[in-house]
Design a protein that fits this description.
By secondary structure, the protein is an alpha/beta fold. It contains 19 helices and nine strands. The strands form two sheets. It has a seven-stranded parallel β-sheet. It has a two-stranded antiparallel sheet with strand order 6-7. The longest helix has 20 residues.
Length: 450
């Protein structure tokens, strides 16, 4: 890994080395397994650490024709590791190639040369290190300079493991609340020791759990607004819909999304009341191959990019939130469809609030857009249609602890992009101004939301 990777100008090198490189990491949305992290366990074997928890890698392996048995199937750990190593040389141009090289360099001090590095020797080298204390889960977070990480947790999930590490706090994953089922209501009632019969009972139980999340350090929530998401204003009939659901009846047609919209309105108000940041992940097409979904599960790495966002639908929802008792929470809009970048960035000026910088803003390049091209496109759109200096910056949204190296990748991409603009004469700001901007984007803007 070259010292000036992605840093092709003197300005880029200065910005990265003097302003970005040594900043701590605030990772406000990821899918790490907090139960494993909380006991500070060792990270298993190289396949468990590097391959088996990463759907990004699984997807690339499938594209290259690797059989599912050696990805998520019954093949042993070394077979899966070897399968990944055989695919890696073919991924030049894909960010997984660069991330993998960076992961081996930053964590193990190994100069990985895809196609040349022997899989068995690398396996043995990593295995020998993984049993050492400096490669425990906590130690790896320290190595990546993680100051705050927010793994997702469901409303009915046990969040007590978060107490074991002060740098971990839950990020509320709200999809099971919004897409409510009788089973979730029962679980919520048991957890809060309340009898939930009405919509009001349900909201009271939610408030109890939200308080527990807040006490555990939660400052962020997220909701998936998938490709077929529809928002409905209140029609005054949601108490009845909840009673039907509570009685075990299946809501038909638009009845279910109408109740979901009501729950989302309530939650948005609670987030605003508590000062949390709400993240909306927009546009995933999660149902593609039924065959792969059955084999690998709903997070198996086979989702696609959905249609362009229905901006009328989204803005109607945000407007209703703003009209609510507690107003609109600070909101990050993640779009999976690159065609929506300009529209999302422009919305940063549509729901402004006195004294609040970046109240509504586009999030970092997400999922399939999380690469150099996607990041640069987001930088361009936010700077053109919004204000780049208030951008909340990078988060990993990953299940792999090694993915924290992507903060370095993001920082290099940002500094490289700014440096090239200065070199071309497209950007006239001096180094002091740009240095402050880089520090805010890479750390302080996210820090201010804690």
């Amino acid at each position: 890994m070259e010292e000036n990777f992605l840093l092709n100008t003197p300005t880029a090198q200065y910005l990265y080395q003097e302003h970005a490189e040594k900043l701590p990491v605030i990772d406000y949305h990821n899918h790490l397994n907090v139960q494993k992290l909380s006991v500070n366990r060792q990270c298993g074997n190289p396949a468990q650490l590097w391959v088996m928890n990463d759907p990004y890698k699984h997807r690339a392996m499938r594209i290259c024709g690797v059989e599912e048995n050696r990805i998520t199937g019954q093949a042993d750990a070394f077979e899966k590791f070897s399968a990944w190593m055989s695919v890696l040389p073919r991924l030049a141009g894909n960010p997984l190639y660069d991330w993998s090289v960076m992961e081996m360099k930053r964590v193990f001090g190994t100069e990985l040369k895809p196609g040349i590095t022997d899989a068995k020797l690398l396996w043995e080298e990593i295995n020998a290190k993984l049993s050492k204390p400096e490669y425990s889960a906590f130690a790896l977070l320290e190595r990546f300079q993680v100051e705050y990480a927010a793994p997702c947790a469901l409303i009915t999930e046990d969040i007590s493991p978060f107490r074991y590490f002060q740098k971990l706090a839950p990020s509320l994953r709200g999809d099971t609340i919004v897409n409510i089922t009788k089973e979730c209501i029962d679980s919520l009632g048991e957890m809060t020791q309340t009898n939930i019969e009405t919509r009001e009972d349900f909201f009271a139980a939610l408030e109890t759990r939200l308080t527990a999340f807040e006490e555990a350090g939660c400052r962020f929530s997220d909701h998936a607004l998938d490709d077929d998401f529809v928002y409905y204003p209140d029609d005054g009939k949601n108490s009845g819909r909840f009673l039907e659901l509570r009685q075990g009846k299946e809501l038909q047609g638009e009845e279910k999304p109408r109740l979901a919209s009501e729950i989302l309105r309530f939650l948005a108000g609670q987030y605003a009341k508590k000062g949390w940041t709400m993240q909306l992940h927009i546009g995933a097409r999660r149902y593609t191959s039924s065959r792969l979904r059955a084999m690998a599960g709903p997070a198996g790495g086979f989702a696609g990019i959905g249609s362009c966002c229905d901006i009328k639908n989204l803005t109607r929802m945000l407007d209703d939130f703003e009209k609510g008792r507690y107003g609109l929470p600070r909101t990050i809009l993640f779009t999976l469809n690159p065609a929506d970048n300009a529209a999302m960035s422009a919305l940063s000026g549509s729901y402004s609030q006195d004294g609040v910088a970046g109240k509504i803003q586009q999030g970092p390049a997400w999922w399939w857009c999380d690469h150099l091209y996607g990041m640069r496109e987001v930088f361009e759109n936010i700077s053109a249609f919004g204000v780049l200096s208030v951008f909340v910056g990078m988060t990993t949204d990953s299940r792999s602890i090694l993915s924290f190296v992507r903060h370095e990748y993001f920082r290099r991409a940002l500094c490289g992009w700014l440096g090239e603009k200065v070199h071309r004469g497209d950007l006239t700001a001096d180094r002091e101004v740009l240095g402050k901007m880089v520090e805010d984007i890479c750390y302080y803007n996210a820090k201010r939301r804690l």
